[in-house]
Amino acid sequence: VYLWNASTSEVTQLCDLTSEDDDIASVAWCEKGARLAVGTRQGFVQLWDVKRAKKMRTLPGHVSRVSSLAWNESDSLASGSRDRRILYRDCRSQNAVEHRLADR
Q1: Is the pTM of this model over 0.90?
Q2: Are 81 and 41 contacting, i.e. CB atoms less than 8 angstroms apart?
Q3: What's the rounded Cα separation, in Å, for the pair 7 and 14?
Q4: Main-chain phi, psi angles of 2, to 5 degrees
Q5: Are 68 and 26 in contact (CB under 8 A)?
Q6: DSSP SS3 for 19
Q7: How many angstroms separate the CA atoms of 3 and 17, rounded?
Q8: Model confidence over 81-91: pLDDT tens digits?
């Protein structure tokens, strides 16, 4: 994932998953704050602090490609996967409380 600064035209690399033998399948910006959610081919959701260019955490829960991500306000994130699960998480919690909205 690369970030482009419209003010300076500077391009910086935020993350590269090739060292983890994974690929990026989806991304979603948080409207409030500088957070980016990245869904991977292996079923993980990574949360990134864009201002610090640092991964905040990795959320497990899916077993296949995460193809859909959507923020609700700045604290809740829904993720949809090829495994036919939709997970809704409160990202304020350390254990990212999970609610399954759809399951096989």
Answers
A1: no
A2: no
A3: 18
A4: -115, 145
A5: yes
A6: helix
A7: 15
A8: 999 999 999 88
**Residue-wise pLDDT tens digits, 6-62:** 899 999 988 888 877 889 999 999 988 789 999 999 999 999 999 899 999 999 889
Look up tokens 């759809």; give the residue.
102
What are the residues whose beta carbons fall under 8 Å from the beta carbon of 89, sequence distance 6 or more? 59, 61, 76, 77, 78, 79, 96, 97, 98, 99
Distance in angstroms (rounded) separating the CA atoms of residues 102 and 16:
30
**How would you write 37-95 as a 3-class SS string?**
EEEECCCCEEEEECCCCEEEEEECCCCCCEEEEEEECCCEEEEEECCCCEEEEECCCCC
Cα separation of 5 and 19, whole Å? 25
Residue type, 71: W
